[in-house]
């Protein structure tokens, strides 16, 4: 139904009020004035959704790029406190026992910051690191290029990063929403554009190209390239804080929540699993699907759970896990399952 402009309604009511002067009916005039106030209260304002903020990279200071070499190299960089000299050293190489060599990279080698919250690989083989307080770093195998709010990133506190099939890099931040980097510009989205919450804890790109955002307290947002669809406990999600999102081989979307267990969405309904159904703990940090179709769930404080579609099998320190606080899970090409735990310990399960 087409909306009738507020001004048109007020004009009609004003004419009626004026005509009432000739009737002398004061009570009737009071009724009309009251109706005007009611009309004002019920007419909705124009759409409050604002366009995303776009910052062109070539209008901002160039990102810092540090090239690695076999010898230490000095760089002159500009900071808010003036110019300073930064020495970039070659990466430290140590034997890891199970690998021939392991290279370590820090701020001494050009990394934006030594606190790394997340990472991903893009379509070109570059590795992107989201750091706490330092923005994002891109490593191309030879050098680090660092991006911050100076280049258009919405916030320097980065929690999660993901690459979509079009080569865009999506960056989730602590309190400022998300930024999309297309190689030339940063486009930022927040609750003003429809995002469920500005505190974004995980990002997942599904097979159809939709980008899913798990937020802290706002539930989940799905972005289809044009608009956001938000999902909360009102639609069936067990908890509005989501740390992990996964699409399985059947196309179902899984959500790992803080305190509500996990939820499986088949496009129509939500099926929720908690400790009541056998999950090790209701606070979930990460999930993967292995080659055999099992869902592995990392929990905060009770180890890991493996769900085969029917039953949960739980593993903790009693079965050999180094720590029951598990941050993330990975399956390698050989089918080994790796767990990263509190304290930085990596565990491999064959």
Description:
The chain has helices spanning about 5-20, 25-40, and strands spanning about 55, 65, 75-80, 80-90, 90-95, 100-105, 115-120, 125-130, 135-140, 145, 160-165, 170-175, 180, 185-190, 200-205, 210-215, 220-225, 230, 240-245, 255, 260-265, 270-275, 285-290, 295-300, 305, 310-315, 325-330, 335-340, 345-350. Helices cover about 10% and strands about 40% of the residues. It is mainly beta. The strands form 8 sheets. The protein has a 5-stranded antiparallel sheet, with no helix packed on it. The protein has a 5-stranded antiparallel sheet with strand order 2-10-9-8-7, with no helix packed on it. A 4-stranded antiparallel sheet has the order 15-16-17-18, with no helix packed on it. The protein contains 2 helices and 29 strands. It folds into 2 domains: about 5-40, no CATH class; about 115-350, Methylamine Dehydrogenase, Chain H, CATH 2.130.10. β19 and β20 (about 255) form a beta hairpin. It is globular, with a radius of gyration of 27 Å. The N and C termini lie far apart (about 60 Å).
């Amino acid at each position: 139904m087409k909306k009738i402009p507020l001004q048109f309604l007020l004009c009609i009511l004003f004419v009626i009020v004026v005509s009432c002067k000739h009737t002398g009916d004061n009570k009737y005039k009071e009724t009309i004035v009251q109706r005007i106030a009611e009309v004002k209260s019920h007419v909705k304002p124009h759409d409050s959704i604002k366009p995303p903020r776009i910052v062109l990279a070539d209008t901002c200071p160039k990102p810092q790029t540090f090239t690695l070499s076999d010898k230490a190299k000095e760089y002159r960089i500009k900071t808010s406190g003036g110019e300073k000299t930064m020495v970039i050293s070659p990466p430290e190489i140590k034997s890891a026992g199970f690998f021939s060599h392991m290279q370590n990279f820090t701020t001494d080698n050009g990394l934006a910051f030594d606190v790394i919250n997340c990472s991903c690989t893009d379509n070109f083989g570059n590795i992107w690191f989201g750091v706490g307080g330092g923005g994002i770093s891109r490593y191309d195998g030879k050098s680090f290029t660092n991006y911050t709010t100076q280049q258009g990133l919405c916030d320097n506190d980065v929690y999660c990063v993901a690459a979509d099939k079009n080569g865009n890099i999506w960056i989730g931040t602590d309190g400022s929403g998300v930024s999309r980097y297309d190689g030339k510009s940063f486009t930022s989205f927040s609750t003003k554009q429809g995002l469920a919450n500005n505190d974004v804890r995980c990002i997942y790109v599904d097979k159809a190209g939709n980008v899913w955002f798990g937020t802290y307290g706002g539930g989940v947002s799905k972005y289809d390239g044009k608009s956001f669809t938000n999902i909360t406990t009102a639609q069936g999600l067990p908890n509005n804080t989501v740390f992990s999102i996964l699409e399985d081989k059947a196309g179902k979307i899984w959500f790992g929540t803080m305190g509500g267990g996990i939820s499986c969405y088949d496009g129509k309904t939500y099926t929720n699993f908690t400790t009541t159904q056998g999950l090790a703990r209701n606070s979930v940090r990460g999930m993967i699907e292995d080659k055999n179709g099992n869902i592995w769930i990392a929990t905060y404080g009770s180890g890991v759970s493996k769900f085969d579609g029917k039953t949960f099998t739980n593993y903790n320190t009693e079965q050999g896990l180094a720590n029951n606080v598990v941050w993330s899970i990975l399956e390698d090409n050989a089918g080994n399952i790796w767990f990263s735990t509190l304290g930085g310990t990596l565990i491999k399960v064959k």
